[in-house]
Amino acid sequence: MQKATPNAASPETRLIPLNKLRVDERNVRSASGDPARAQADAELVASIQAHGLLENLVVVPRGKTLYGVAAGARRLRALKALAADKAIPKDHAVPCLVVDGDAAVESSLAENAVRIAMHPADQVVAFSRLARDGATAEQIAARFGVAERTVQKRVRLGGLPAEIVDAYRDGRINADTAEAFALTADTGFQSSLFKALTESGQLYGHAVRHALANRQARSDSPAALFVGLEAYRTAGGSTEDPLFEDDYVTILDPKLMEELAQQKLNAVATDYAEDWKWTATQIEFTWVDQQNYLIADAERRADFTDEETAALTEAERRIEDAGVQLDDVDIDAERRRTLWDTLTREQNRYAEIERARADRDGFAEAIRSNAGVIVALDRDGNLEIHRGLVRAEDAAAYRAARSGDSGNGADGNVSAPNAPGASAGAPNLPGGADPAPAGRKNGGYTDALRNDLRIMRTAAVRRVLARNPAVATDLIGFVLARMTGFGRRHPGYEPPVLAIRGEYQGVYASDAMKASETMKHLDPVPAVDLGWLAEVDAAASFRAYRALPDEDRASVLAHAVASLTVPHLADDRDVSGAHEEAVCNLDIDFPAELAAIGAQPFDTDLVWNRMNKGLILGAASETLGDDWASKHSGLKKKDLAAATAEAFRHDPARDNAVDAAAVRWLPPGFAPVADIAEATPEKTSDTVSESNADAPRDGNGTSAEASGNGQSAEGAATVASGNAESAEPPLTPAPGNGAAELLDGDTSLPAFLTS
Hints:
Layout: E1 12-17, E2 21-23, H1 35-51, E3 57-62, E4 66-71, H2 73-84, E5 93-98, H3 101-114, H4 120-132, H5 137-144, H6 148-158, H7 162-170, H8 175-181, H9 187-200, H10 205-213, E6 217-218, H11 222-227, H12 229-234, E7 239-240, E8 250-251, H13 254-269, E9 278-284, H14 287-290, E10 294-295, H15 306-326, H16 333-358, H17 365-368, E11 372-377, E12 383-390, H18 395-402, H19 447-465, H20 469-484, H21 511-514, H22 538-546, H23 550-564, H24 577-586, H25 590-596, H26 613-624, H27 626-632, H28 637-647, H29 656-663, H30 673-677, H31 681-685, H32 704-707, H33 713-721, H34 751-754
């Protein structure tokens, strides 16, 4: 084969021995260490061995017997590789087009620049055609120098319906989308899905994968991990290799897999049927599902035995070892599967030990006779046993069995999900008032009341955070960094700071709280142009967002982070340290913020009527004085609540220090944990008399003797010191409740966002 080369005198084709050819310096294609180039070179070697040299080399004379290859350096390397493997002789005759030196560079450039590479779509169609003609994956792999799995992938892609291959060739879909279609071998489904996504304008890889997920299951789904592929196949189920994913196989009969999982869950549930009123099974029991039940806590938590502790330690070691090895991206697929099997086995072992321990937890008969158990699976296919679930129809009977203090307005000893369970000591009450019942959780504050208090505190926190983009930016950056890890092992379970992960635990408001002004401020909205959010096209929406002024984008970020903060009281047992540190950084004046949203002074029905007499009188004694508490201790609960609510309102006629303490009173859990932990002895000593200075302390930093009265450390210090000069002036609600007032304060962007 000859090429017309300008200014070349009669180029000719010759057969030149391979050992007389060298790469010429005028060859414009440079060598490369790119792994993709190495793979391509290997494929070229296989092609030349199978089909021969399909295009001549372009060479120029270099002395009497040697020739320099000006065009065809890769082919020359491939030929020499074959000679080194003794597939061809060292003096193998190579067809070459001989040109003069002046034309060498031009010939090399023309061959490499003008050549049009075959489109990947044409390559995969060619592989598919070979397979249809009877060639095996092994034979094709040998002929073209590629791995068998690569052949299988190309054959699967080449077997896509013609309209999908054409769309790939024409650039209407990219390689990722083509591979997503090839995750299933069902060409009929591929065609119908391609048509549907084309019509909806959603012809993207993620949309294809989402559609497939609704049609078939994966072997790493919770149900499949729980049942196991062997049991599924024994029951007649079939699988399919998705080819383009190495970590799972496709479950083609998800209904059968679900039935097998339910059967196993039902067998486990029978173990609990004798001890509980009812049992049920669900493959997935989500946080949303939990909200349909009251959750009763165990009265006694069992310990692990020595044998269990040793087994847990060993399981943890194996899980960690497997995790470290899985972090190595260079391990082969078979080894990766083995490690995943090890990880799953040890996680199941760990879960079984924990389940055995939890089965020994002590639940009162009043709970077991009115509550039940749901057996479900976690994300890793491990059993989850949800004990102590009280259905709506059993709630009244449960409360009746557990109450024993209905006259004091108790809501019953029932937890919301993740509700705190710390107990507090009984307060020393004036006038002979009865203390909170022994064993009542949260110092006598019911869980329902604490839920509403969480909402009040969260509304205040979000309100201030929305005005502080710097803290919001730090918080979102911290949370994302902890989630990502950057290759470092996660330190273990962390209570959620922001609701950007699946474990967000919300708080349900009472009917009274839902009707309050506080709810209007729970989800702050920035007073900036939000029209860009309505853009259907994400790119256009992002462009419009970026076009906003810096201060508007700062406000959007701050309000978004604020809206995502997880509701907490500072003394919740699952509170995030990062959350409380951020609250400290914000330096929130809770009484002022609550007053601005209509939550201070606290509403009679919302708060005071839901506290027992002991708690009300304790708060009054610490804040208004023993004389006031003794004078009103004989009132009925309802009358006492009304009188206390009135007394905690601003009264300019009384002592300034007492008035300031009254309007700034807060129940336990509002002051940040870090504030309490860092309080100096001088500051905290004001809240404790000499006689009880050594008394045990509760989670809010006050003595057990004072913890039941709802008095915050800050408020108690103000009252006890009697220092009118240090007392802050009485507060009045700020005018207006619109979103605009949330923007007062610092809305500047942090420096690193504007650089």
